[in-house]
Design brief:
The protein is of the alpha+beta class. The chain folds into three domains: about 210 residues, no CATH class; about 110 residues, no CATH class; about 70 residues, no CATH class. About 35% of the residues lie in helices and about 20% in strands. The chain has 14 helices and 16 strands. The strands form four sheets. A six-stranded mixed beta sheet has the order 1-2-3-10-11-12, sandwiched between helices. The protein has a four-stranded mixed beta sheet with strand order 7-8-4-9, covered by helices on one side. Strands 13-14-16-15 form a four-stranded antiparallel beta sheet. Strand 2 and strand 3 form a beta hairpin.
Length: about 450
């Protein structure tokens, strides 16, 4: 989420307050490049935010069989212990692998285009909607697990016949359906969908019941952990800090067919004798046109105590979070980046975007260095430093323009810096001689 440079700076700030062994464990988790790394980053963000508004102890011992992530104290907010939990739709996604299905279909579409056939697919995946009255608390798409895609869909006679028809008459629309006890999908090919893929399916990550959802289950598990942690001090509250790992319920809008986050948390606090408050940290999606980066981390709080304390905690956390470097990626895109980069350390940090003016070009300094060192091939380099900007660079050189200045502009809150190339006018080393602008060279 945050730039790796920013994470390292936060680690440096926390080094004096964290015991060496605990700091080492946190760093190992951050280096895992998987979901545990995302959870460790959220813990670090929570620690940094709370440390800026009060006193924080990490994994304090309360005398029980488990330890909680934070023990906090400040004059305005009092004392509380809390544990951080990242919630996601991972279990829903495993049960409904529509994204893997879409990816598989995209590969087939790419192969068709590589063979010279223009067009694309749209698909519909049907399913069984949730019905609380009938004891069915989750929507289930009629789609097999991804390891069965070939056997049940893409090697099925219906799909082979469909693909043969597409190849035989690529300028027509073609549709196929497979519907049985295991799956129910329809796929349409159209030459009008060139380079684009459309899909539709039932939303499967909504909370149709207050108890049978990922947020309630996370709160229930953390409540049990708080009980096992031991005895709290007089007046010391206990809370759960939920962080977004790609959980749709954290941002679900009210509708007649599902429950909201407020519904779930409010009910849990009413039922729980252990948890006094719940704080949710997430990265809201920006509604600004053309904005691709997340705007900021946001904190929301629900509590049994009076509304003033709840507002104070949310206000203090949001002020502290605003002081941290802004996020570069959403939690879901962070996980996707982990998968893409894998073990390639030079890809762990993201490259900055390129930019062009009439007399300058900015491009990723790291990408240029990796290309010169042979760690990026030309194709990958041109995906990183956009081919349009490389074409503009070639145009400037073909015009015989000189390079007047090359500087580095530091990327604040980013994992890369900008290599800034400023162009001059005439470079005789690569262009014909010209008549000087002033002929009076002796004066």
């Amino acid at each position: 989420m945050l730039a790796r440079r920013s994470i390292q700076n936060i680690l440096s700030c926390c080094a004096t307050s964290l015991p060496a062994a605990k700091l080492d464990g946190l760093v190992k988790r951050l280096n895992a490049q998987n979901r545990d790394a995302l959870e460790a980053e959220w813990e670090l963000i929570v620690l940094a935010a709370l440390a800026s508004v009060g006193s924080v102890e990490y994994e304090a011992a309360l005398g029980g069989s488990s330890r909680l992530d934070v023990r906090f104290h400040s004059r305005t907010l009092g004392r509380f212990v809390g544990d951080v939990r990242t919630v996601s739709d991972e279990s829903y996604d495993r049960e409904n692998p529509v994204r893997e299905f879409s990816t598989y279909l995209s590969r087939i579409s790419d192969a068709l285009r590589d063979s010279g056939l223009e067009g694309g697919f749209c698909y519909r995946v049907n399913g069984d909607p949730a019905s609380v009255r009938n004891g069915r608390y989750k929507t289930k798409l009629k789609l097999p697990f991804s390891h069965s895609f070939k056997r049940l869909i893409f090697n099925a006679p219906e799909f082979k016949t469909f693909l043969a028809a597409v190849r035989g008459e690529p300028r027509r629309d073609h549709t196929m359906e497979i519907s049985n006890s295991e799956l129910s999908v329809s796929i349409t090919f159209s030459p009008r969908y060139s380079g684009v893929q459309y899909g539709s399916y039932l939303s499967y990550n909504q909370a149709h019941d207050l108890v049978h959802n990922v947020v309630w289950q996370a709160l229930k598990e953390k409540s049990a952990q708080i009980k096992r942690a031991g005895t709290r001090g007089p007046g010391e509250l206990a809370g759960v800090i939920l962080c977004d790992g790609g959980c749709g319920l954290l941002r679900a809008l009210p509708n007649p067919h599902s429950r909201t986050l407020t519904d779930v948390i409010t009910r849990f606090l009413q039922k729980s004798a252990t948890v006094d408050f719940v704080c949710v940290l997430d990265i809201p999606e920006s509604a600004a046109y053309g904005q691709t980066r997340p705007s900021a981390i946001q904190a929301r709080t629900w509590a049994k105590r009076d509304g003033i304390w709840t507002q104070q905690l949310s206000g203090a956390l949001n002020t502290a979070l605003q002081q941290l470097p802004p996020p570069q990626l959403s939690p879901v895109n962070t996980l996707n980046h982990f998968k893409w980069a894998q073990e390639n350390q030079h890809l762990w940090g993201r490259y900055v975007n390129s930019a062009m003016t009439h007399n300058s070009l900015e491009m990723s300094l790291r990408a240029v260095m990796d290309y010169l060192a042979g760690r990026l091939d030309r194709t990958t380099f041109e995906r990183t430093v956009h081919s349009d900007w490389i074409a503009q660079l070639k145009k400037r050189l073909d015009e015989g323009r000189s390079v007047d200045d090359v500087t580095i502009k530091r990327g604040i809150g980013e994992d890369d810096d900008h290599l800034v190339i400023r162009f001059g006018e005439h470079e005789p080393a690569i262009s014909p001689f010209r008549v000087p602008q002033s002929r009076d060279l002796d004066t």
